[in-house]
Prior knowledge:
The complex is a heterodimer of chains A (464) and B (198). Chain A is an alpha/beta fold and 464 residues long.
Amino acid sequence: MSKTLFDKVWDSHVVRKxxxxxxxxxxxxxxxxxxxxxxxxxxxxxxxxxxxxxxRTFATADHNTPTINQHLPVExxxxxxxxxxxxxxxxxxxxxxxxxxxxxxxxxxxxxxxxGITFPGATIVCGDSHTSTxxxxxxxxxxxxxxxxxxxxxTQCIMxxxxxxxxxxxxxxxxxxxxxxxxxxYIISKLTTSGATGYFVEYAGDVFENMxxxxxxxxxxxxxxxxxxxxxxxxxxxxxxxxKDKPLSLKGDAWDTAVTHWKTLKTDANATFxxxxxxxxxxxxxxxxxxxxxxxxxxxxxxxxxAEAVEGGVSxxxxxLDYMGYQENDSMIGKKIDYVFLGSCTNGRIEDFRAFASIVxxxxxxxxxxxxxxxxxxxxxxxxxxxxxxxxxxxxGFSLRQPGCSACLAMNDDKIPAGKYAVSTSNRNFxxxxxxxxxxxxxxxxxxxxxxxxGVVTDPRTLL
Amino acid sequence: xxxxxxxxxxxxxxxxxxxxxxxxxxxPARFLKATERKGFGDNLFRDWRYNGDDSxxxxxxxxxxxYSGKILVGGKNFGSGSSREHAAWxxxxxxxxxxxxxxxxxxxxxNCLNVGVLPVQVSPEFSEQIFNAIYDNPxxxxxxxxxxxTISILSTGAQESFEINSYKKExxxxxxxxxxxxxxxxxxxxxxxxxxxx
Lengths: 464, 198
């Protein structure tokens, strides 16, 4: 029988099928962080259980960590307590732990792939919805709750009904200034934030085939924002080249054997999907959001739609625009902004910093803009320095912070003040997401850089 | 974590007819710093419920004494966004045992089932009927019968059935969770793992 990529990976990880219930699903790789794991370990202890396969779990601190002065003790006692719990629990159960100060430390969805923990055909979970990032490698990767973290720790399995399958095809050539982030925001604007709920998505077509691994990660990362549990892209030579010789990648004959298997991980010609959508690359322009969910996005040259033209409730839509301080039919170009955030598991990789630098090179940051540039990991930070990007951004009046999730969810001190506008390369523009009362415009690193230079929302194509 | 059995719940309900209520609204990230599962109900819908100076926002439904009960009725696409189980904990800890919506986000729905909050998905029409019934009379009682998989508006007699897979249903009826089940099949899991390349 013809199978999709998703079927192949899913079916090979089912330990048991339960009649009328979920599948018992084996997890190859499990990432944990300081925020969603402490209660899982407590549960484990209270039941007298232990960690079944500690070598399959990897801990990194990222969600609440400071992005300056990481060598000093963490000031916030609650954050410090969570970080200590992660360290202690990892030590007690023999789990690899990359805490603050460790060279390997960084955002879980950046350091996992960078170190070769992620691999094609793997099943990967983490108590974080953006685990979908790892689907870029042809893995089934998705976010779970803390109860499920406890399940994976104690049994390496969770219980999941198999989702439906959707394929999104985009062919053609992307225009100037159009990045993987724009492709993802475009899809979400078409599907809405619930359009893919209940589905697992495969991205197909030459737009995705031509993307780098960083670009594919950005796209898969945002799958959750259209409601999908995850998204994946068939592994190919780009994937293998990225993973080869990573610290934890297979080596020698084992690598060759694995690659032979990974090459079979693609959707068969006759396989069917529950839903199939097709878009054209040429229809996509640099995107920006104007509302309070990632589906409220549009091409940067467009006007904010009328409530009547939008699917869903008029009152929810108007509440959203009120929160943002925008009106229907407003143009976004020229709107004043206060903050710029470059970073997160969506856009905190080296390619994102290259894009940002390509715009700000030889220019100056707008005086009234506060910009936080936060690399996703120390490896990204090192590359920024090696490639000379640090000099470029510093000459333009920016500085670089230390790795972490930072202002994406503002659990640390990196909070956008109430009422202020931030152009952010992160993944969510929910009310208060980046700090109580903050207003977020999601966009690509190019759009963020253009806004940082001009101080207003600007089409990056005019600066390229 | 063990939770109370769920059989039949008859209660008044709290209406929140907004769409796309995300888990950042249910519990903002800055309240996720606990290392124990307690006290999350205090910060349920924190930024919609309280002003910056911690005074209650009178316009928010949880601060309106007319509405109360163990059932929260939300709008379409309830629980989208972050996977934080803390959102489901906050709802449980506040005192809700059931959330009704015409559409749930996946991870939130799973999290609810794992912590003893029953997510009941109804048709958009029935959702409208529930909101109307509550606004007509806030004392309207809603009955959720898990065994029969039905939800009823007692004042009007309107009823609809809802879906839940039989495994999860048994768990909720008995207050069991998945870990009990998974522990019972550890040998199968270990032999599966032994056959893996990576």
